[in-house]
Amino acid sequence: xxxxxxxxxxxxxxxxxxALAGLGLLLNERAGVLNLGSEGIMLVAAVxxxxxxxxxxxxWAAFAAGALAGAALSAVFGWLVIWxxxxxxxxxxxxxxxxxxxxxxxxxxxxxxxxxxxxAPSVPLLRDLPFLGEALFKQHPxxxxxxxxxxxxxxxxxxxxxxxxxxxxxxxxxxxxxxGYPVRRIRLAAVLAxxxxxxxxGAYLSVVYTPLWVEGMVAGRGWIALxxxxxxxxxxxxxxxxxxxxxxxxxxxLFLQAQGVQVAPQFMTMLPYVATVVVLVLISSNPLWxxxxxxxxxxxPFFPGx
Amino acid sequence: MNHRTFLKQLALGALVAAAGLTACSxxxxxxxxxxxxxxxxxxKPAPLKAAFIYVGPVGDAGYSxxxxxxxxxxxxxxxxxxxxxxxxxxxxxxxxxxVIRDLxxxxxxxxxxTSFGFGDSMVKVAKDxxxxxxxxxxxxxxxxxxxxxxxxxxxxxxxAGIVAGKMTRTNTLGFVASFPIPEVLRNIDAYxxxxxxxxPKVKTKVVWVGAWFDPPKETEAAKSLINGGxxxxxxxxxxxxxxxxxxxSKKYAFGWDSDMSAFAPKAHLGSVALNWxxxxxxxxxxxLDHTWKTGETxxxxxEGMTDLVKVADFVPADVKAKVDAARQGLKDGxxxxxxxxxxxxxxxxxxAKGVVADDKWLGSVNFYVKGVEGKVPAGK
Lengths: 306, 380
Description:
Chain A has about 300 residues and is mainly alpha-helical. Chain A has one domain (about 1-295): Orthogonal Bundle (ABC transporter involved in vitamin B12 uptake, BtuC), CATH 1.10.3470. Chain A is built from 13 helices and no strands. In chain B, the strands form 3 sheets. Chain B has a 6-stranded parallel β-sheet, with helices on both faces. In chain B, strand 3, helix 4 and strand 4 form a beta-alpha-beta unit. Chain B starts with a helix and ends in an 18-residue tail after the last helix. Classes of the chains: A mainly alpha (about 300), B alpha/beta (about 375). The interface between A and B is large, with 35 and 40 residues.
């Protein structure tokens, strides 16, 4: 029982960086911009966040630094793809490669440094509940924050005028432009917000989840977040569930092994991706499904003059 | 589309395809380019050029770092007889071949490739540069000018096991493993055997992470081992994450590949380190003395290629004495890590009583010894 509670707790924790980055990318993509640079952005943010935490000892300052670093790198990306209309795929990959190299370069002196121990945070009163306390209420505040964020993103996209405009820009920038909306600035805002969220995810990894910095420590989570947006058919609530599914399967595999239950680890490593394929097959069995949700102008440049 | 235009297009398509094919096959044929690499020997001996390629960054205090320490050692030992260069973060596969070829063309006379996955690239390039000597770490394919070398890493793991067996309170050790290949299984088994040599009650739990390098996942694996009751951890992965998690959870762990004591002052019991320097001096000297011959080299504690270093001060003296005794035994040959009877955890005898494991046996270890929990994941 206690082990199960620990597994739930680990799942929530593991899903949090994926959900954060995934939500950021979802906002990007809803505005029609595909940012393949997420892995590099997360790495740069991770090193910025870790360095800040080391200097200030304050993890919220670290998250802010991560968000800033993420937004700054995405601003470069945004300027390139929105104003210069460079190819989004190539630019994103370039940003990703640049980010991993740059983070390694500036992070050389941070390798092996230790953060000051902070007591594990928890929710008062609720943490004493049997089982549930262990499973749900001994988490970092960011874990709860990301759940709120997913709700907020859903509300923003579907219940506010600004969200409608954002989606319009992703569906048909020409129409939005004709209506007088500043398509490029809206896209840039979405890219900045998305980069900031990826940045918070990176900082969460290096400051809370694995409190250390080593080169390449994001280890592919940026790519998983990208896959999650498709998995979730660009819906925030589904994205959150998907993040927990991905995190949960990874954690389940490690927990089972430590409990002496033998499952081939290769099989378990494969599972989240199999789940993605199954979901994609299910989605595409009804073409309407994906057409309804996928931003129609995803990845396409927009020329206001044309 | 009428019939005739269709036929015309078909013919045109076929023509284009054929042209494309010939172009391709032309490209594929390797241009016989026997570029003379060796410049005619000048009157006064120029320094020998030696090159190293690493799979990771050298600054990572891990596997590639250890190799680079070896390179520096050799350069210092041999002085102006040798000039060394290195290329770090070379991806295994086609990229490696390009880098190795490049190094050979630049006039390097001996090239060390330090990761298993460079093997095929080395074989290919070695064929094209018969007067350059190639050295491949942890490989198995040799050629007249290509030889392989590796460390008996499990001897270091065995020494770590002795410390672990004495320091554990729960009699449960943890091992964060990468991939179920003989090298890794040998280390798990040696770690367990070392612990059992001083504490027969010890059992080992293993968690496979399916990666050589994934710090968050290594951390989670360490956490789940600790939750499962393990209190002394060892890892066959390349980052310091497991050690640092042990530090946070107030458990013990070891460094791997190189001295990692700085990463976890309270948790660090010792580091199972690799020291390639001695071999690199020997290999370069072989070229200088014209005594280089192909073959396989496997060095262990005896030759100093692996050892348990920086054993923590708080480890009791009697434990250190046990490690010293075992190290001495490995050095003078009175101790071998795998000496029969070796029984696996299903009760099957894998090595008969009194038999000392040979290299072939060591190269095919695919079982857990008695005391390791669980089953080896299939499909290695």
